[in-house]
User: What shape does this take?
Amino acid sequence: MKDSSSIIFSNIPPEQQATILAAGKSIILAHKDILFHQGQPANTLHLVVVGRLKLYKVNQKGDEVIIRYIEKGELTAAVAIIRDDDYPVTAEAVGQTEVINWDKDTLDQLMRDYPTITINLLKTVAERVTELQQRYQELVTIRVEQRIARSILRLMEKCGVKQADGILIDFPLSREDIANFTGTTLYTVSRTMSAWSKKGWLKSGREKITITDPHSLMVFAEDL
Amino acid sequence: MKDSSSIIFSNIPPEQQATILAAGKSIILAHKDILFHQGQPANTLHLVVVGRLKLYKVNQKGDEVIIRYIEKGELTAAVAIIRDDDYPVTAEAVGQTEVINWDKDTLDQLMRDYPTITINLLKTVAERVTELQQRYQELVTIRVEQRIARSILRLMEKCGVKQADGILIDFPLSREDIANFTGTTLYTVSRTMSAWSKKGWLKSGREKITITDPHSLMVFAEDL
DNA sequence: CGCTCTATTGATAAACCTCAAATACAGTGG
DNA sequence: CCACTGTATTTGAGGTTTATCAATAGAGCG
Assistant: This one.
């Protein structure tokens, strides 16, 4: 973590950051390991240090909706901890993933010792609201193909790595994941992406996507 | 406000509450007055004291999505203020409405003087995240009629007043409002509500809804 | 090399939106 | 008090989008 700054540490001197980090515990997760389950009492704040987490909600019918991906440097479970409530989502590792966590008592102490942390948490949570509002609006007002395009582009911006043939989304991402993230079905995602492959906008294999023509995809995504 | 407690004041002694209130300015709005516009720089935190606000987002096409109603005792613009960003939504008064507001500098000072306020803001914002995640999931996984039912029930719970013939939602609420809140069209809302009228679940006039059989509506709303 | 999981594709159907037109309602000014 | 006007609501017909179901093909793993 020393290399990449996390929002939680903004405006906190490096030596204090080390102390705060040291107050947490590290956990290593393998691909598809569950960090916490929706419905469990929330007692730990998590910071992703390596890899990423997939946050999803499941309803009684079994439908899975992906709420968010948590990348390196980002926090999760802040909302549940603050509300002193159950986790409203399940967090699953995507690829080998390391997280640092602080239990509630430790966090409370840290917030007392470093009031800036409270502000930083507030900023993190505020950002979530803005993002969710935006996606909520898009879900209501724009059609699936554009939503799929936007989802892929966002993931590309957050996790894309440059390759010779385009920008690779660097973690296992299935058609079903995209569907659950976008609010559609895996069939529609598959059809849509097939069409884009034919246009040369992207290439895709099993759980892998490379965007070969980001510009065209963006034009399509933002077209009114 | 002295009679009803607001989250912002939780764990703050009454005499301090008075000081905090006094640091804010009061504004009276008429029905449909705009408190702030989406896109304006956010520089004020608002607390609804009388009446309510409708928060909505508009896209370039002009589609309006209602994000939330802000009731008496609730805050708005916390997210925008904290992020030091533009308002992501427009806030419009529904009926005669009074708000107390604090500008950013005042709020910063208050947060320094009363650290509990920061925690309380965090709780407010955290609650928004949970609510939005829930509605996001519902938008993806459940059908319009159930979504309409749930929206009406939520508004009933927040703003319903008991009448001889049922529970009245006590503010002007059009079919279009419900549609924009639920992610559908006013036509679908109208058709759906007509059907429910025939079943005796509710009665409705122009911008008025009385739920005459909340139980049946709840069973329908929660049916899997 | 078979097994399992993921992806593709076609056919069909359901859900819901769009457009158009008629009707009801509330407030306003004569 | 009533006609008038501007909204809000209702309802029908028709079309589009997208989901669902079914069947097949491909990829990776032991």
